[in-house]
Specification:
single chain, 367 residues, alpha/beta, Rossmann fold, six-stranded mixed sheet, four-stranded parallel sheet, 14 helices, globular
């Protein structure tokens, strides 16, 4: 397994952190000339994390490399994680667990039903994911504890992955992502700033591991890039204090392995949280989000969705049109999955799913 940019910079990490290779890295950093022209920007690029994995892309795969690496190191035979019914994280976890011959349990919470949720649940049915529904956060943890207590090979062989994979260890996946970005940039650049390190990155923020990891990795890479973290979940889930905590815990974990890694003061110096694009609720599309999804599709043939990436791009578009990004080098970090679902998902009836999941399925012909 080849060293990633983080391990190349700090070789002690390679021997201590357990990582399993799931992602196809580095993901491309692509210019978007049509969208940039439409928005009046000199330099706009997309970081194509929608292509992180060949089976399934999106930002979760980077985190799962470390989380599954630790699970296998501990000789676990199963994992358990959490997410809303249509959670990309839950699906990515189930897909890669299956690839690694691990059983996967997901404890879910309700969300707005959409065709995407329908297809996600059918994909879980194909994979044989063990799904349970919780009413609220306290019950979520109770169900997880019950599953662990009853785990046939013992609770210690069931590895618990938090919401979004956003533990300090999962966050390390995005510390590496920032160093990867740094290796793709060259500060000489051309007149358009093509290869220059970005002044700003726009990224959707839910469970905060992506943002905390990027913020830490950018500091380690010596880049002054700021992160515009566009909140796509309720404020009770995503707060500045949460980003700060993940940043500090990941920073301490890495420094405990390699003493040459500094402990950074002021974890939030390069992070701004944007609250104004969340709209009416989680997975509720806003007009600006729908416009953003349509605009990038028409100009760059890139597909986004309305829960995460559409809202992040809406913030970028707003700032570009208001003149805030004039003369700046901008990166949009695409955290969505661009890989098609396997044909078996179209043929899956979902009849093996629990009763509560059936109501999310549209029972007309879904081919």
């Amino acid at each position: 397994m080849k060293a990633n940019p983080l391990e190349t910079a700090f070789p002690a990490l390679r021997n201590t952190l357990h990582r399993v290779e799931l992602a196809d890295l580095p993901t491309p950093l692509e210019p978007t000339e049509k969208l940039a022209a439409e928005l009046g920007l000199d330099n706009l690029r997309i970081k194509r994390d929608d292509q992180t994995g060949l089976l399934y892309g999106g930002n979760k795969v980077r985190k799962l490399e470390y989380l599954f690496g630790e699970a296998l190191h501990r000789e676990c035979d199963s994992v358990i994680t959490f997410g809303a019914v249509g959670s990309n994280h839950a699906l990515a976890t189930a897909i890669y667990a299956t690839r690694l011959d691990l059983n996967c349990h997901v404890v879910m919470t309700e969300q707005t039903g959409t065709p995407y949720v329908d297809r996600t649940l059918r994909y879980h049915a194909v994979l044989g994911t063990r799904l349970e529904l919780a009413q609220g956060f306290a019950q979520l943890l109770e169900i997880a504890d019950r599953i662990a207590a009853g785990h046939p090979t013992g609770a210690d062989r069931l590895y618990r992955i938090p919401f979004g994979g956003s533990s300090p260890l999962g966050t390390v996946g995005f510390v590496n992502a920032a160093l990867e970005l740094s290796t793709q940039c060259d500060d000489k650049g051309d007149d358009k700033g093509g290869d220059k390190a970005p002044d700003v990155i726009y990224v959707a923020s839910g469970t905060m591991g992506t943002v905390a990891g990027l913020a830490l990795g950018l500091r380690l890479a010596g880049l002054k890039t700021r992160v515009e973290a566009v909140r796509v979940v309720p404020e009770s889930v995503m707060m500045l204090s949460g980003i700060e905590k993940l940043f500090m815990e990941a920073n301490r974990e890495l420094q405990s392995i390699d003493r040459s890694i500094p402990i950074f003061a002021d974890p939030l110096i390069n992070v701004a949280v944007r609250d104004e694009f969340f709209g009416a609720g989680y997975a509720e599309a806003t007009p600006e989000c729908l416009e953003a999804v349509s605009l990038i599709h028409d100009t760059e043939s890139v597909t986004l969705e309305t829960t995460y990436t559409g809202k992040a791009l809406a913030a970028l578009i707003h700032d570009a049109r208001s003149g805030k990004l004039s003369g700046q080098s901008v990166v949009f970090w695409n955290t969505y999955n661009a890989r098609p679902y396997p044909p078996a998902v179209n043929d899956e009836t979902g009849s093996s799913l629990p009763d509560w999941a059936q109501r999310y399925l549209s029972h007309h012909d879904h081919h």
